[in-house]
Write a structure and sequence with these properties.
Structural class: mainly alpha
Helix content: 55-70%
Strand content: under 5%
Number of strands: 3
Radius of gyration: 21 Å
Largest sheet: 3 strands, antiparallel
Shape: globular
Order of helices and strands: HHHEEEHHHHHHHHHH
Strand order of the largest sheet: 1-2-3
């Protein structure tokens, strides 16, 4: 119990602030109905919050030992989705156990980071940039990414890849490898579009439609472009100060689809304006800075890499979500962390902070 005093309490406070703001927004988009979305979200948050505190007090060596099991369990669940997965919103991403429904890809976000952290903790620094030891983490990253993108879930696949590459960089892999990736990206994009309507098409028609809508949402404003068009209207109508709590026309009059899940940021911008949206981004940024400072001061290599990787995952959540709903990226179905309605993402995000807290509490403990 004494470890409770060593938790990163400013980080705990900011998580509570964002969580409470999320309940407020879910109450608003439900037109003042607390039972509809706010109550179940609050119950999930309280369960996850307690789990986070407990995880923070568990020794970092325990999480190190669990890392390979979490990763391979996540891979097994992703494979299970192909055979037993449940459909929703045009995608096959969920597994159901009775009344419990969750996305295995959410678990994979954590499992990948844990496995890469233990890999680089085990690997001698002198071997980090040798080609053989670079290929292994690439395989570790590509395996879950290749299982997630065909679900289809390009957003989560992007987050997995982004997180993995960031961890390789943080571990000290030579910058030459990253330059190769940068030069290969344009070639991959050309190949991606060239593959369309061929027998070896790289992504599904569903994903190509998302890309088409991103490039030209005005082409079908009442069809596939309706979602992003209404989102932009809501964002612009909020102005600097917003229309006021529960006064957003797009969300309150149900013009905005998925207003309680993926597109809840547009409701925030409509009701609280530019200042409200930037305020939320500042809180997210403060959370990220606290995590990174903790990572840099961590004398335990596994704990440091774990914190950097999980911080990247958290950043990817809100970056990809906000980029999508503002029209800066294709719509991907990635939730806004601690705010969007949903059980899997909420519990996983709080689990992420539980691991970060454990790394922080045990940051002075070096590996034997």
């Amino acid at each position: 119990l004494g470890k409770v005093f060593y938790l990163h309490w400013p980080l705990v406070f900011l998580i509570l602030v964002v969580g409470c703001f999320g309940f407020l927004m879910l109450y608003s988009v439900a037109d003042g109905d607390y039972e509809k979305w706010s109550k179940p979200q609050l119950e999930r948050f309280l369960i996850g919050f307690v789990i986070m505190l407990i995880m923070g007090c568990v020794g970092i060596d325990f999480w190190r030992a669990c890392s390979p099991f979490v990763y391979f369990f996540g891979v097994l669940l992703l494979i299970s989705v192909f055979f037993f997965g449940d459909y929703g919103g045009g995608a096959k991403r969920w597994l159901e156990f009775g009344s419990f429904r969750f996305q295995p890809s959410e678990i994979m976000k954590v499992g990948l980071v844990m496995f890469l952290a233990i890999y680089y903790d085990w690997l001698k620094p002198a071997n980090t940039s040798k080609i053989f030891w670079v290929i292994i983490p690439i395989i570790i990253i590509v395996l879950p990414t290749a299982l997630i993108i065909p679900q289809p879930d390009l957003g989560t696949g992007t987050i997995i890849a982004m997180t993995g590459v960031t961890m390789m960089f943080a571990a000290g892999v030579h910058y030459f490898y990253f330059l190769i990736v940068v030069f290969l990206i344009p070639a991959f994009l050309v190949l991606l579009f060239y593959s369309r309507n061929t027998s070896w098409q790289l992504v599904t028609d569903y994903q190509f439609n998302r890309i088409d809508t991103f490039l030209n949402p005005e082409k079908d404003p009442l069809g596939v472009g309706y979602q992003i068009t209404q989102s932009k209207i809501a964002l612009g109508s909020g102005g600097l100060e917003g229309k006021g709590f529960m006064q957003g026309s797009q969300s309150q009059l149900d013009f905005l689809p998925y207003k309680h899940t993926d597109f809840i940021f547009t409701t925030i911008a409509e009701e609280f304006g530019f200042f409200g949206g930037v305020g939320l981004l500042l809180i997210y940024s403060a959370i990220l800075i606290f995590c990174l400072f903790s990572a840099f001061k961590n004398k335990n290599r596994f704990g440091s890499l774990l914190t950097i990787g999980l911080s990247t995952t958290f950043f990817s959540y809100f970056f990809v979500n906000i980029a999508a709903v503002t029209g800066m990226a294709p719509v991907t179905g990635v939730p806004l962390p601690l705010i969007s309605y949903g059980g899997s993402a909420m519990l996983v995000v709080l689990g992420i902070f539980g691991l970060i807290q454990s790394s922080h509490v045990h940051r002075l403990i070096k590996k034997d």
